[in-house]
Amino acid sequence: MRNMINSVRVLALAWYFSGETSYAQKAVQLIDTWFLDPVTYMTPHLQYGQAIPGRTNGRFIGIIDARSFATLVDAITVIESSHALSAKQSEGIKSWFEKYFKWLTESEFGKEEEDYINNHSVAYDVQAGAIAFYLGKESYVTKKVLEVPGRRIDHMIVQDGSQPHELIRTKAYGYSVSNLTNFFDIATIGLKAMSIFFIIKTTRVDPFKKPLIT
Question: How far is residue 187 from each of residues 92, 182, 191, measured CA to CA in Å?
């Protein structure tokens, strides 16, 4: 999945900056194979994400593996402007993401991931927020962004700028940086929907200054 998303992103940018339609056409081929072709398309859920044979058929933490869908929907929007995607294909892709969004926000796995108190839940916000914006659900984006200070920042970033829930992980530095990226990405998505993120009052004056410096 990650390779597919990265390939579509690169091809979208290649078309945008070069104007060569072959890049957009190749991106459409990948998108069609993954989301539209009835023989090869992915079922719109991650119920079997991070399965462990013999132990579990799937885990809610597998949802983070689709975090890059946030990048993909932007790339698809760029490709749509190339006219390489037909109207029918665009409708089909949106239909796929509507079904996936419903699973993401209403399934037990989705709810567990959203409530997980570490980088997983902020990555969830990025993924769900980006997909919601792509689908025109700006009220959902606004809701998610407005929840970030009280629901995420206050519980994840302490006064000295550290992130205790990431520091207990095996690769603390990487997780801490990754989660800061998540925070800025959900802010960016919120700005697209005209939500004001960085001036929302939290329990601290500037909750991101120390994490960035340290």
Answer: 28, 9, 6
Q: Is the dihedral of CA 31, 189, 142, 139 positive or negative?
A: negative
> Which value, to the nearest 10 degrees, does the dihedral of the CA atoms of residues 38, 39, 44, 47 take?
150
Please give the pLDDT value at position 124. Answer: 98
Distance spanning both ends of the chain, measured CA to CA: 33
Scanning the chain, the segments in alpha helix (DSSP H) are: 2-18, 21-31, 69-80, 87-106, 108-115, 119-134, 138-148, 154-156, 164-167, 172-192, 209-213
Coil/strand/helix, residue 49: coil
Residue from 178, 53, 77 nearest 131 by CA? 77
* CA of residue 24 relative to chain centroid, distance: 22
Q: What does the buried/exposed string (b/e) look like for 136-168 if buried means 16 or more CB atoms within 10 Å of the residue's CB? A: ebeebbbebbeebbebbbeebbbeebbbebbee
Domain boundaries, the chain: 1-115, 122-214
Six-digit token string for 196: 């004001």
Rg of the Cα atoms in the chain? 18
Model confidence pLDDT, tens digit, residues 96-131: 999 999 999 999 999 999 999 999 999 999 999 999
Task: Grade residue 207 by pLDDT with cuts at 50, 70 and 90.
Answer: low
Characterise 131 by phi-psi region: left (phi > 0), alpha (psi -120 to 50), beta (else): alpha
